Amino acid sequence: MAQRSLVRVGVTILAASLALSACGSRGGDTSAGSGSTAGGDSAAKVAKIGVIAPLSGDLSALGLGIRNAVDLAVKQANESGAIPGWTLQMDAKDDEAKPETGKNAATALAGDAEVVGVVGTLNSSVAQNVQPVLAGANIVQVSPANTGPSLTRGADFANAPKRTYANYFRTCTTDDVQGPFAAQYLIEQGIKKVATIHDKKTYGQGLVDAFTKEFKAKGGTITGSTTVNPEDANFQTAITAIRGGSPELVYYGGEYPQAGPLSQQMKSAGLNVPLMGGDGIYDQKFIDLAGATANGDLATSVGAPTDELAKGKEFLDAYQAAGFTDPASAYGAYAYDAANAIIEGLKVSLKDAADASSARQATIDAVGKVDFEGVTGKVAFDEYGDSKTRTLTAYKVEGLKWVAAKTGSVE
Question: Where's the Leucine-binding protein domain (predicted)?
């Protein structure tokens, strides 16, 4: 893949982190009752946007930000009367970051005739179980966070891409862009010897595979590779396996509940090099878990820093004003854009619809054609359902805060 030039941002996301620390979820907004009636019309017909995300457990910091952002988008649409004659409601389901729980959540939403769209999931492994359920019910799904390429382009996405589910879209970019972006960033920083670890899950393994391919192509050396289990808490075996190769950095495919302790244990064991991961570790909780030695660790995440974009600032202000008590986190802005992509589709599909369920296929068709300026940039989808926007940012921990280092994209 050809590389676009990376533009140095040189600004921190500290301001956004401080602003978001006062934001978050309000109790009671997880039910289908979220959202106010459009124009005060009690006779308005109801259409629901579901959410499937981890609302409890280790990854709830990310899932709650997703839920809250959808809640905000739904409330704003109702307040503005975006779809005359209709009231939108949010129905949020907790998938606990577990594939089977996610499947059950999708089944529940699919069985509700008023559900016309779903925002989710966070995890690519959960999406694999959710996709066929929602596709079978003709319900549009827009993920703010799934980065596994196979979800849109099939198992042989690199050689023979094929659309998997016509109802599935995503507002974030994919691992086969994010991995190479990280590899190119490290090569530019003069880091050419890297060990890799992943958690065996769809996201972690895919990210490491994409990173490794590009890193080698750019002249880097993988000094060692190993895996851990998603439930592991002690990483000494993995650390021992890669330490002998004297890597300059460890690239981890997985999420912050394991990445934070891994970073701390690496350094305690004498492997005093940075840990780098993808968007799955880009959260303050990674730093909290990694502790004082987190400074110097790295992550990539989708998009430009939200507080650096005009619409991003508007979103953060509205999120804070809504009174949420949990941060929007890495995917709040993308969830907000995902919800608004569905809402834009509903403006077309519900216009002459007798009820919500009869508008499901028309909603899929309409969402595939949306094109608007969102919080994260232009929101539009290619022939596979992938976002046309491929911007990423590399972040570094400085002073125990994530600081934006470079923003750019890979073609």
Answer: 48-398
